[in-house]
Amino acid sequence: MKEREKGRNWQFGIPSHWEKQSITPMAGPINCDARPVPSAAGHSIYLLLLKKALVTLFGRLHCLCCAHLFHRIPPPPQMKALPKDRGPCARVELVLSAKSLADRDLFSKSDPICLVEESVQRGTPPNLQNVFVEIGRTERIKNSLNPRWSKKILLSYYFESKQHLRFNIYDIDSESDELSKHDFLGRCECELADIVSAPDGALSLPLNYFRDLPNQSGLLTICAEEVDDGQRESVHFVCHGIGLKQSQSLLNSFCMGKRKRTFLELYRLMDNGSRLMVHRTENARGAHNPEWKPFEVSVRHLCAGEKDRQFVVECYELREASGKHRLVGFLSTSVNALLNAPKGLRLELLKADKKGHSDHPKAVGTVHFLEVRLQREHSFLDFVSRGMQLEFAVSVDLTASNGEVTRPSSLHHIDAQRLNQYECAISAVLEICEHYNRTKQFEAYGFGAKIPPAYAVSHMFPLRLNNFERIVHGVSGVLDAYRCAVVNTQLFGPTNFAPTIREFVYKTSKFPRDGSRYQVLLILTDGVITDMHSTIRTIVDASHQPMSIIIIGIGNDEFTKMDALDADNCLLFADGHTAARDIVQFVPFRDFFGAGWTQNASDQEYLKSVLAKEVLAELPDQVCSFMKSHNISPPLRTPQPVHQQFAPPYPILPATAIADDTPHKQMHASPPPPYPPNG
Length: 679
Known about the structure:
This protein is an alpha+beta fold. The chain has 4 domains: 1-17 and 50-60, no CATH class; 90-226, Sandwich (Immunoglobulin-like), CATH 2.60.40.150; 234-376, C2 domain (Immunoglobulin-like), CATH 2.60.40.150; 391-640, Rossmann fold. It has 15 helices and 31 strands. Strands 20, 21, 24, 25, 27, 28 and 31 form a 7-stranded mixed β-sheet that branches. Strands 12, 13, 14, 16 and 17 form a 5-stranded antiparallel β-sheet that branches. β27, α11 and β28 form a beta-alpha-beta unit. α8 runs antiparallel to α9 (474-488), α8 crosses α13 (601-616) and α10 packs parallel to α11 (532-542). The chain is flat, with a radius of gyration of 32 Å. Residues 1-38, 62-85 and 639-679 have low confidence and may be disordered.
């Protein structure tokens, strides 16, 4: 197939060598009134044009067939630039209060303020430095050791980045702006992620002092509130048309018949008198009584957040041939008018009379609003702040394609002086994610190796090589388990993803559908996947569960098949089933590896930060898309006991067998676990 594609211009769907052929125009004057006389030259031109049209048609059909057979057409490989700064996941306000501050004044109490700083990276590799920059300060509270500051600290929240904050409290005794001239009362530091995910909505931290006040322990309490401003409200519409008057053209009625389609367009009225289209419905069947599918429009888009502001609804008759759709009629209303009206409100569509007089419009039908309701779109922070726990698991490729671990060229080579790519990727992702799980525990697995004591091939096993020690504590625990597995297993193969993903499909199917738990599976691999069809089918099943999959490609492989799993442009499809949503994010580590990879600790921290930004950027949207599709609201603030909330709800399963579509049938494997049948 690749050889045929080399000679094909895919932009137009014609073979490239045809572009060199030219068509010589016929000589002599053209008589437009005369009937054309067939000629040999004319026949050749017609045949050539017909042949080009057929090749174009078959070329496009070929592209569609390839897209169906191979699930999606990957873009041409290219090096990805370092991730640009994306918009914030949310804007948050910090509300601060303190208790039992030190009293540094002799004749009165302290007059405290709180200054907030954020750690930022300055410079470029290899000269990176972390410096603290002030992002805001509170007002001064006079004569108080238990201040409650009213001024809030506003900052942007990025899920995919570390945001280290420092809080400094000073006793202000003069009008000087120089903090060195005021008494220092205490300091504390934390991550913004710890604040937004605090179990009770507030994080309390002890204040540390210098020199002469080591035993006094003031306390700073920090609350994070998401700035909403009504930006996430939307209006849900269910509306049908009744008795719409269509075109009276006899030819149009004869040709179209019942195939006529109509659609609605919603317009926001601007302050300068212009209009801005904010939504267009699908083309509904039926000329007179169309039924449009339910749709939602943001309040911000529809009326700039002003629910009494009028907006316009226009109804059109679709005319695909000309593209000039016929206006059936229009109406104007407001969000509050629809919300306050009785259910089943009917509004007339109006249209100017034949003479164009809009002062006396006539009714041309009715729009029946069966349902209009206001709903708030829950954000990622809504779920995190209400106690949702992100549960993380790591699965490491331990196949022989990584290279012999004793050789420095191996991707699994352990060096005490620097992290290898696997270690760097693990720490980059989990150092961000551990703040969203109160237990700081992770599940750690490997696949594709021969494991002791029998040294049979296993496609899912605990990195600690003990079925009762699948869960490890902290990022350091995952790294220790990984190093243990590298030393004590025999790298083998093949590279099968489906057994691991299937395990977590089963696990998450037992999760309560109340927004309290969401699973993230991190897979690290170096090569070509060998059970592609089974993996795609399992990912399709996983798309219906509260889980996401992150795949990081280690090494310099092309990873073409991995790109096919990251279905950003179209949903995955297998065995007649389509994925409910996109849950896979694939990133090759080599895009961030290279000249910047040195033994310098600051350079490694920089690589970890840019990798985490790229890998984790889509996770908040994936969480929200699942919750929205299942109509799940954030859980109430009733935290469960830790041992109940995080105990594995599924049995310990034996190592999985090789998938049916794996060519390595001669390998030994333990019997497959009793998985439930795929939906």
